[in-house]
UniProtKB/TrEMBL annotation:
It holds the Pfam family RNB. Residues 2-173 form the RNB domain. The keyword Cell membrane does not apply. It comes from the Eukaryota. This is RNB domain-containing protein. Keywords: Nucleus, rRNA processing, Signal. The lineage of its organism: Eukaryota, Viridiplantae, Chlorophyta, core chlorophytes, Chlorophyceae. It comes from Chlamydomonas euryale.
Length: 202
């Protein structure tokens, strides 16, 4: 079953998105516009993070991804070496370049699998209050961004709702909620979000 799970992750385009009139599942079609929307959402999240921290430097809800220790990548470095590829983990930029180069012309899913295995070697990203850390610790390693938050999906993530309220206060559309002025309360919200996110991954 583990291999089935890995195959499903490595072959997302083979997952059925609809059933045709003949009763057979059809593969989902991933278009360039999907990637463009993802990129714009990342940029929106980064822009909002900058804006709320500018107005509320001690009580903004952010998301960080700590830089992994090089030894955490040992499994993927060894696996890639066995397949004839070198993975450079000295920086996120070097890692991204290595992953871009880990391609097999005869296996279109090889690169996807390598990327999934690399992600499994990393620590999880976490929510935190901006007042609890110095700005140098805000960075998101996986996205190579010095600051990040979740803003674009308030319909499915409570963190985004909190950030929407902060942004509304930052641009003068609404007063800052009293709960947002309480660093200990924000820390509790962040901890709760992290626990629930972790439990959802189990």
């Amino acid at each position: 079953w583990v291999w089935v799970w890995v195959w499903v992750w490595a072959h997302p385009r083979c997952l059925p998105s609809r059933v045709c009139v003949c009763g057979q599942p059809q593969p989902a079609q991933v278009m360039e516009t999907n990637q463009m929307v993802e990129e714009l959402m990342l940029l929106a999240n980064i822009s909002v993070a900058r804006e709320i921290v500018k107005h509320f430097p001690s009580c903004s809800l952010l998301r960080r991804h700590p830089t992994p220790a090089p030894r955490q990548f040992d499994p993927i470095v060894r696996a890639a070496a066995a397949a004839g590829f070198e993975i450079d983990v000295r920086s996120s930029k070097a890692l991204a370049a290595s992953l871009d180069g880990a391609v097999r012309p005869d296996d279109v899913y090889f690169n996807k699998l390598v990327r999934i295995m690399t992600t499994r070697c990393m620590t999880q990203a976490v929510y935190f209050g901006s007042g609890d850390l110095s700005a140098s610790d805000y960075h998101h390693y996986g996205l190579a961004s010095p600051i990040y938050t979740h803003f674009t999906s308030p319909i499915r993530r409570y963190a985004d709702v909190v950030v929407h309220r902060l942004l509304a206060a930052a641009i003068g559309l609404a007063p800052l909620p009293g709960s947002a002025r309480d660093r200990a309360g924000l820390r509790g919200v962040a901890d709760n979000l992290n626990v629930r996110h972790h439990n959802a991954q189990m």
